[in-house]
């Protein structure tokens, strides 16, 4: 008999796992719980979550409580009599009363090798902090923040130039079958949940806009990691002639200079910016506030730089 599943999630990262469970005959997705439709994008139009869109397309019942701790949500889940609830980046803390409802508990897919990088932005901070390896963890939900017992884990290498959106997609795709394997093993009694070692824990807090402001006293590799890890929001930005501009670039190999950090210069025909420790960043793209993104060469052609001009932190 197929396992009765309630799927609880919100962003694009959760969609591959939902699709995998829908297609796998070992499971029957009875309902999807996701966040209410909210204003999104520049136009602030009321928009459904990616998980809701996928559920509607598949003809699955969707429930969108403002607060999942409500009595109505408890009644909804009680009536479904699910064997397990799968939760992926839903966005709310689950009460113990809800955790106790399904016989196999709540299974969460988290985009790190717990207990490292608990919290809202594990993919971004793994890149920013220069990790070479990250991965996925399935865990049982408890009343804490990503603190529940570990069920399964899978390591993945981080590419040297991989951005947060690129790594997010890879992790989401690999995570989908991992969730299914975890549910099967739980149902068969083949997993012994492993408590997390809290002494090894680290926290990946939510990103803030100011995280994107470039400190040019950092070396070029550190800045490059921030450019990759802070996509798509808030992006890596600086100030040029009093205006905010987003930049994209990569370390300039073998560069050595005696310029102040942030100074813009040309090296081997390429636009560069002086960084800390006598390193430099090859500027690839540039986007001034209110303008479209342009190449570094277009920036050089249009800016008519004076000697010694710089980006300020």
What does the model show?
- With 313 residues, this protein is an alpha/beta fold.
- The protein has two domains: 3-200, Formyl transferase, N-terminal domain (Rossmann fold, 3-Layer(aba) Sandwich), CATH 3.40.50.170; 209-303, Formyl transferase, C-terminal domain (Methionyl-tRNA Fmet Formyltransferase, Chain A, domain 2), CATH 3.10.25.10.
- It is 26% helix and 26% strand.
- The protein has eight helices and 15 strands.
- It has helices at residues 15-23, 50-58, 71-80, 96-99, 122-128, 164-187, 220-229, 296-303, and strands at residues 3-9, 27-33, 38-40, 45-47, 62-63, 84-88, 106-110, 133-140, 150-157, 237-240, 243-251, 264-267, 270-274, 280-288, 294-295.
- The protein has a seven-stranded mixed beta sheet with strand order 5-2-1-6-7-8-9. Strands 10, 11, 12, 13, 14 and 15 form a six-stranded antiparallel beta sheet that branches. Strands 3-4 form a two-stranded antiparallel sheet.
- A hairpin with a 5-residue loop joins strand 14 and strand 15.
- The longest helix has 24 residues, at 164-187.
- The mean pLDDT is 96.
Summarize the structure.
It is built from eight helices and 15 strands.
Secondary-structure map:
Blueprint: E1 3-9, H1 15-23, E2 27-33, E3 38-40, E4 45-47, H2 50-58, E5 62-63, H3 71-80, E6 84-88, H4 96-99, E7 106-110, H5 122-128, E8 133-140, E9 150-157, H6 164-187, H7 220-229, E10 237-240, E11 243-251, E12 264-267, E13 270-274, E14 280-288, E15 294-295, H8 296-303
Helix pairs in contact: 1-2, 1-6, 5-7
């Amino acid at each position: 008999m197929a396992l009765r599943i309630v799927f609880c999630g919100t962003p694009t990262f959760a969609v591959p796992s939902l699709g995998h469970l829908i297609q796998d005959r070992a499971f029957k997705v009875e309902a999807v719980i996701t966040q209410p439709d909210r204003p999104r994008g520049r136009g602030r139009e009321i928009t459904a979550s990616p998980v809701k869109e996928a559920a509607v397309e598949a003809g699955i019942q969707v429930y969108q409580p403002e607060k999942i701790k409500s009595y109505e949500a408890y009644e909804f889940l009680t009536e479904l009599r699910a064997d397990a609830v799968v939760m992926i980046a839903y966005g709310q803390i689950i009460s113990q009363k809800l955790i106790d409802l399904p016989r196999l508990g709540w299974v969460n897919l988290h985009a790190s090798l717990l207990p490292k990088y608990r919290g809202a932005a594990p993919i971004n901070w793994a890149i920013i902090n220069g990790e070479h390896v990250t991965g996925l963890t399935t865990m049982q939900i408890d009343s804490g923040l990503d603190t529940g017992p570990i069920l399964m884990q899978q390591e993945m290498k981080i590419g040297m130039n991989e951005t947060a959106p690129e790594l997010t997609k890879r992790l989401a795709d690999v995570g989908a079958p991992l969730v299914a394997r975890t549910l099967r093993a739980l149902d068969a009694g083949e997993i012994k949940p492993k408590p997390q070692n809290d002494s090894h824990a680290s926290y990946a807090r939510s990103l803030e806009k100011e995280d994107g402001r470039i400190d040019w006293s950092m070396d070029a590799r550190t800045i490059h990691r921030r450019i990759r890890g802070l996509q798509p929001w808030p992006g890596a930005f600086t100030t040029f002639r009093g205006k905010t501009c987003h930049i994209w670039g990569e370390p300039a190999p073998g560069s050595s200079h005696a310029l102040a950090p942030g100074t813009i210069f040309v090296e081997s025909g390429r636009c560069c910016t002086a960084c800390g420790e006598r390193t430099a960043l090859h500027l690839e793209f540039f986007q001034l506030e209110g303008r479209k993104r342009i190449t570094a060469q277009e920036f050089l052609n249009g800016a008519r730089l004076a000697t010694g001009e710089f980006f300020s932190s």
